[in-house]
Write a structure and sequence with these properties.
The chain has helices spanning about 1-20, 25-30, 35-55, 70-90, 95-100, 105-115, 120-140, 150-175, 180-200, 210-235, 240-245, 245-260, 265-280, and strands at about 285-290, 295-300. By secondary structure, it is mostly helical. The chain has one domain (about 1-55, about 65-300). It has a two-stranded antiparallel ribbon. α8 (about 150-175) crosses α10 (about 210-235) and α11 runs antiparallel to α13 (about 265-280). It is globular, with a radius of gyration of 19 Å. The two termini are about 20 Å apart.
Length: about 300
Amino acid sequence: MANAAAVTGVAAGLFTIGLWGSLPVLRGLAELPPMLVAVVAMACAAGLSAVMARFQALPGSERQVFGWRYWAGGVGGLVGALYFYFLALESGDPARITLITYTWPLGFVLICDRLAGRGLKPRTLVGSAVAFAGLAPLILADGQGLTTPVGAYAAGLASGASWIAFSLFLRQAGPLSSRSYQSLFAHASLIALGLHVVFETMPATTTSSDWLTAGLIGIGPYGIAFMAWGYALRCGPTNLVSVLTYLVPVVAAVFLIALGLSDPSTELFIAAAAIAAGALFSQGPWLRRSSAGRGWAVTGRWRDRSRSA
């Protein structure tokens, strides 16, 4: 059963990565200010969660605690990841900003290991470094050569730190009901609305396609994806799931190529190979030959049981 849960956790992580990879395509179709897209997307994600909650059997007294971890890690982490990333993009090279933001999976693994009382694992560091090194040429190949000030790099790091905080919250909170996700998305939408009102200007003209696309972002890459991500973090092996997040830019590039919006490149194949190698290297000790001689199997240690992380 433990192995089955770990496998479904990895599958949920890959499903999440696929949805996140579709975000660049969808975002390009919605000509709305970034925070306004977040407002609509989070509101639609909350609506989706509300519909799902009607079909979910709940215990007599559902635990729904809005403590500091919920506001700082859940709502704050989610909004911060979006806000700081968009803020960084306003003044920096998108490729360099994306690259600095994608240091967060390694930081997440290191913090989880630290909280669980485990030491620094060289295998994890090397696996993540291989994946990150392979990802760098792909991202930088799309760079615009813009000057990137220190403030933009700082905002990119803040976005990555926010992703870590949000992922830690999902990992520690335990299974969240659809109603809990409804509250999380609704609160994030309200905060994003405040940021939109203060820092953004409403476009003079919009189309129904803009609003529909923003809503689809909320249902897929923001809504269902975040629910699946929470499951992946709880049930899958932390190291493997974290390394696989480097696949998001690769999947995004594949979608763009499939739609004829980009061309295949050597950097794409290098990135895919490096991420696969990094994932296999970081998980090497958990693979063994099955005793029955039926090929490779996954040991019980593959699943990270440290719920204290």
